Structure formats: structure tokens, C-alpha cells
User: What shape does this take?
Amino acid sequence: MDGGPRVPEQRRSGSAASAIAEPAALRFSVLGPVRAWRGEETLNTGSPQQRALLAALLLREGRTATAAELIDALWGGEPPSQALAALRTYASRLRKILDPGVLASESGGYAVRSLGEGALDLAVAQDLAAEAEKARSAGDLCHAREVLNRALALWDGEPLAGVPGPYADAQRVRLEEWRLQLLESRLDMDLEQGCHAEAVSELTALTAAHPLRERLRELLMLALYRSGRQAEALAVYADTRRLLAEELGVDPRPGLRELQQRILQADPALAEPSTPAAEPAVVPVRPAQLPASVPDFTGRSAFVSELSAVLASASESSAEGRVMAVSALAGIGGVGKTTLAVHVAHRARPAFPDGQLYVDLQGAGPRPAEPETVLGSFLRALGTADSAIPDSLEERAALYRSVLDGRRVLVLLDNAKDAAQVRPLLPGTEGCAALVTSRVRMLDLAGAHLVDLDVMSPDEALALFTKIVGEERVAAEREAALDVVAACGFLPLAIRIAASRLAARRTWTVSVLAAKLADERRRLDELQAGDLAVKATFELGYGQLEPAQARAFRLLGLADGPDMSLAAAAAVLDLPAEETEDLLESLVDTSLLESAAPGRYRFHDLVRLYARACAERDEQQPQEREAAMSRLLDFYLATAAGVYAIERPGDRLVDHLEPTEYPGLVFEERHRAQDWLYSEAICLLACVRQSTRPDQLRRAVDLLWAAIDLAESGANSKEYEATGTAVRAAAQSCRDERAEARALVTLANGHHMSGRFELAGQEAAEAVRQAEVAGDPLPQCWASNMLGVIALYQSRYDAGESHLTRAIESFRSAGDRPGEASALCNLSRIHLATGRTVSAVSLAQQGTDMYDDMGHAFKGANGRYALGLALTQSGQLDLATERLEEARAVFRDIRQRLWEGMTLFRLAEVDLAARRLAQAATNAESALTLLRGIGGEWRRGNVLTALGRALSGIGQSGRAQVCLQEALSIFEALGAPEADEVRALLRASAVV
Assistant: This one.
């Protein structure tokens, strides 16, 4: 990489990069228009020539300039006859507006003196640049990057804007060159920190503005390559070589040629940044995520020694040629795998000074943790910025291994499902080690040191029991204590629960506990191997609960979600929040429940299964279980409906949802409502999937519909679609046409948002048929609206207009003004596609006005999106930009990533129409970044087409060809009519 930027020759004494001027002190700017302030008061710096004099003196930073030098600076070789008199007049006027002593006369010349710290923006920028260079040399890229951004922010347009004279002309060129050097340095650090995807957009615009600047081209090639766009990176080189030959008759410099060769050879050193991404706000110096080791850890000495030896070998990996140490502990639930692994990990901490990572992979539960999610969490803990974390599992795993390279980190992967879940999470680099716990032996985990953990020996079990209960009580009843640990099957978790209960009951004797365990009706045959032994120990703890605690334990275990909020638990138990919290905290004290986070609770997976068994066995009335789950469903539906109503005021959907008996949460502020929806997404969808009985199905479907933002935002689209498929199947099984129609609407919307238009159309058409049978008007309205949009995408304009006209009429009949506005905006797009531009603008404006009248921010943004399209085609480009920027701001605020990305794409189309080609490329690049993994291939193809057109217009024809070719491949695979347009663009660019 190139060295740091060259600092301009002007320097002042002292360093005050962060100095703050006194309120009444003078301040000056030259990195833009030449201006002066006294405190917050703007001073009148006079005519252009007078400002030129001020600029010339400021840029000398205290050095005296002779009258001859100043005349030459202002007028060059042809000064006016009265130049000296004019110069003196300008100096006199400046002296009157400046503080006394600032403009000094010396030896027939002038100088600006006595300025305070930070008084000149150029001097501040110089100090910041020096500070950034120092931080970069020290390896602190985060600080260096932040400081350079502050320096660059001091530029306010063209330096010395509007100032005449040859001196100002020369200084403008020099200051602009320095700005570009600073910008290149900052972009270089962006790439070193892994922000390559984000840098592509900025670099695309910069290479368009400075097409012959090879350093920017080099950075763009590297950013594209690291973003997985190798063909585009090579196309940038081809464009550069052609442009240099045409304009200057030279070849690219050696550094650019070398980079091209390294890209062609897929040099592994180019694939990842040399420095792990980091942002000060989220970067811990070293992760220390190990859970606390239990103070009464007992026995297992042979296993501790064995595992410690394996971990110690990691520190000798370089000498022995080993890559890493991996130990996999296997055993039944409750055998103490996690306790042993955590204990050993704490003992090994000195051998891993760069940190320890921990995760519960939830392998024994119904929804094991996804490796890509875990990798995202690990990367953040290791100092990687969110913006630098890629989307795919393979890319995250590669970045994870790269970040760990050269570090000595211990990774504890607890409760793994299988080897496939574990493999992407292994460090793979020398000096690191991994400990894995699982219920299965990982014979297919290559190179792992396998450990089978059995139950405790009788002596170890008794020692653990004694540590918890107390030496005195056990010594008095040793035989009874042996009976207790034997009844527990020598299973550590069972022993710990039993001993803890006894320790908490001072009036009990050990014999009383042994007698209770001897009762087979209570033990559930705990001496059998496997989960039954664990269940017996839970039975002991459960038997000691107060009635209210026991009821809470049974009912809370019924829900499928990974955890539960306090409010949801209150709904399940039908109790006030305060009473619910007391009960839950008491269960936490008994170790039958865990506190996942403030206000959230979870069961260990085995305890959840046991709680459900208790609910099936002990609830005298099965209706109590059904009522608990019904209240949970009501709670989620009522709350989600409230969130929907806040987002979409006036929308009639909330009036057509199934009634609920149990209330939900009420939010006064939109952002808090959104936070609730996204934080509860997994639990909410789990509740929908669990509520497929005939008496719950309609509410479950309505809950899915009310939570439609989960699909439209792209955040939970896959889980949302899977849930929609499940409830649709349940509706078919129950022959409930109403529920099926509504489920089909949610499915069709999910397919539409993912770009699967053919499937979306089929589901929407079926929704209309089922809704007609059921006599349910709302799905008919929504599905007709959706069918119109899909027909638009498929260029079936007559069918689209028919569907949308029907939707408008249906929404009007239902009194659903937001739905009517939506259909009007969609109809405007049909009019656009068929050349009726004036009516298209009118329809979109009508729909947007309706949204605004209702205070509908989200859908109002959709209206502005449609209006922006219509204004673009009508040639009103400035208005189109305003409407689309308004829409984009709303989408960004409400976390609608899909629509924010699509709005950027539409802004790129406006820029293309206005011939703002560099800006078009920037917006298209930003759209591609936002739409990664969401929106489907058809939308991606459209954005690539816009990007190709923009790149072609700014002379980057090779890269444009790559983008257009990728778009063509997408459209051909989809059978989309847009393929013809792209072929024409490719032919035109080939001719050029």
C-alpha cells in the first residue's frame, strides 16, 4: 500500500488538533469559501480581491508577505496601475473588521499574527492528519480512521471558493490534491478494517470524478475483489489501462499491474484485510466469555488432567506442527459436561492470553443455534465491526479464522448438536484450542480428542453431596447419604439439585431425603440410563415447590420459544407482572429456571421437557394447559396488532383480526413497538407454529399477518415463510377456508418480497378463491392488490390493471383507506408502464396524500416511492429525488432494509436520467449492499442493470460489462423480459 498523504508546506507552530476557540475568538476558513467569524458572528470579508488578500496571508501562517508578493498573488503578471493603493485599501478594511494586532504591517508588507489555537481550519486539518498518521503507525487504525474523517469533514466544497488570482488557483489545486491523498489514506484503512463492501460505493463515485487517479482505481479493485466481485475488479483494470492509453499514452503503474496479477492468481493474501475490523464502541481488548466455574467442583481429576494436557499442547503447536487442539466431551444430559469443560477452561486461561469465547449451541433443543449466527457473535467479540461481517456462513467462517490467526484463543462450544454444527466454529489456526460438549460422540470430527464422560464414582458423588449439604449433616448419616447419591444414579446434575434442596431445608434429615428418593413413584425409575435419570432428580426439586411455583413451572414449559419475556410469562400464568416476577425469580433460585437476561427467562432443555411431562401428568384439568397457551397466543396477537396499528394508522386489518380475551402490551412510541416486535420475533413465530389446533388456528394466522413486518424487513423472512407454510397446512387439514386464505396472503407476500413472483401469484390467486368461499373480504383485497403488482413485474399490464381496479373497489367497500391508497399507488405504476405518465403521477399523488392525511409514515414512504417513480418518468427529476429521499429516510428509520435498498436503486435511476452518472453508480452500489441476501434475484438483476449503465457512462466499460452480464444471467434464469433490455445494453457497450 502507498504511504500516508503528503502534508502541505504551510505549517504553524504548536499543535491544537482538538483546540476549541474561545467564544469571542477569531476563526477563519480556507477549505471552502474564505470566511471569518468572531465567536458565532460571521464577519464581512469584503470583495473577492479583499478575500484573496486575506487568504494569501492566512496561508502564510504568520510569515510576512511583501507588497510585491501580494500584488503578484492577487493579479499575477498584469496588475492594475493602482495595485499598491488597492492593496493598502484592502488591508485597511480588513484591519477594521479583525481584532487589534491581528493584521500587522512589517517592512512594507503584511502578516496575520496572534491567532488562537484552532483558529484556521487548514491548521486544524494538518494537526488532525499528523495525529492520524501517528495513530496508524502505532497500529490504532480505528482512531486513525476517525481522526482522518474529522479532518476531511473540515472541507466545505472547493477550497478558496470564489477567490481570484493565480496564487489562489495554485493553492486550490494543492489543497484538493491533499484532500484526495487524505481520502485515499482513509479508504486504505477502511479496507484494512474489512469495510470493503461499503467502500465500493464511495470508490465508484471517486473514480468517476477522478478517472486518471490510479490509486483510487487500485483501491476499487481491491474492494471489489474482497467483496467477491473478481470479474468486476479485473474489469476496472481493463478500463484503467484503456483510459490511460487513450488519454495519456501510458500504461498503468507497476503497483496496479501487480494487483491485477494477484487477483488473476487469487492470491490468498488479498482475500482478507491485514488487520481485523474494529470499532472502539464495541471492541473488547480480549473476550472473556467463560461462565463462572462452580466453587464446589468435585472429582473428575483424571479427566481434568487429560483435558488440561491437550489444551496445553496448543501452546506448543508451532514446535510440534499441530494446527490446534480440539477436545470433544460426550455424555448423557446432566452428567456434568459443561461443568467439567468450564472448570478446565478456567485452569487453561493463562495459556490463552488473547481471550476465551463461549457459546451454548442449544443442540439438545428443537432449534439449535445456527453457525452463522454464532460466528457473527464471535466476530463482534473479537473486535470486528458489524459492517465488516459478511452474510454467508462460508465467508464468516473464513473471516473468523483470519481474525484468530496469530492469536491464542480458547473456544468453548457447549451443548453441540453434531459435528456439522461445530466445524465452522473451529479456529483452525495454531495456538488456538476448542473444547466441545455434546450428547453424541463426534466420531466424524476429524482430529478431535474424544472424551466419554460417565457418571461420577460413588466417592466423587458423595464428596459433591457433602460439599453442598455440609460435612456435619452427612457424617451423621453416611449410609443415608450413599443411598441418596445412588438413587440419583451418581449423576452430577441430579446430585446437585437434591443436595441443594436438602441444604435449603434445615429441618430435613438426610434420611428423609433418601426416603423420598426411594419412592419409585417419585423417581420415575431414575436408575435407568439416559434422560430418565435426569428426570428423577428434577422430580425431587419439583416436589418441593410451593403450589404456585409448581403451576408456573409446569405451564411455562409448554411454550416452544427459546426463552420468554416477563410479560409473556405473566400471560401464560394469568398473573400480574409483579407476582409473576417473584415466582420466576424463586424458580431461578431453585435452578429449575435460568435468567437469560433482565426480564427474560429460559429453561434448560432437559428441564423444559420435564416441565411438560409434569404438565401432562399433574394438571388435573387439561383445559388449564390449553388456556395457558391460549393466553400466550392472545398476548402476542394483541400486542402485534397494536404494533401494526402504530405503524399503519387507519389500516383496517386490526379491525378484522380475531378477538382476544387476554390483553397485550401497549406502546406509546413507535420505536419501542418495533423493538418489541423484532426482539420477540422467534418466540412469536414459535407460538404461531404451536397454535394449530382448530380453536387456535385463526388467531395464529392473524398473528402471523399482524407481524408482517418480519417478512417485509428481511430480518426474519425465512422463519416467517416456514411458519406461514405450517399454518397453511394446518388450515387445509382443518378445512378452514378463512384461515387458509389469510395464511396464503402471508405466504404470497413472503414470496413477493423474496422475488419469487410466479409462486407469489399462485398463492395470491388461491387466497382470492379461498376468501370468496369463506366470505372474508380482507384477504381478497390484499391478494388482488398483490396480484396486480405481480402482473406489473411480469409485464401483464391489462391483467394488472384489472386486479388493481378490483382491489381499489374492494378496499373502498371495506372502508380501508390505507389499502385503497396502496392500490392507487400500485395502479400508478401500471399507468407508467403503459405510457400514461400524467395519470400515473396523479394516482401516486392521490395515494400519498391519503397516507399523509392518516399520519401513515411507513406506507406514506411507500407512496412517495411510487410517486418518485412517476415523477422520474415525467421528467420532474428534482421532485422525484425529493420524494425518494423522503421515503428512504423513513425506511431507514423503521428498519425496512428491503425498501431502503430499493429506494436507493430508484434514486440511481433518477441520477441516470439526470446524467449524474457517478452519483447513480454510488446509489446503485449502496442498494446492492443493502439488498444482500434479501429481495430475490430479480431485484438484484435490476440494480445490476442500473449499475452497469452508470459505470458505462463514466467510462468504466469493462466493469459495466461484468455487471450487465451478471444481470443478464439472472433474467435469463428467471425467464424475465428484462433480459432483452440488458442484451441491448451489452450490444451497445460492445460497439462502443
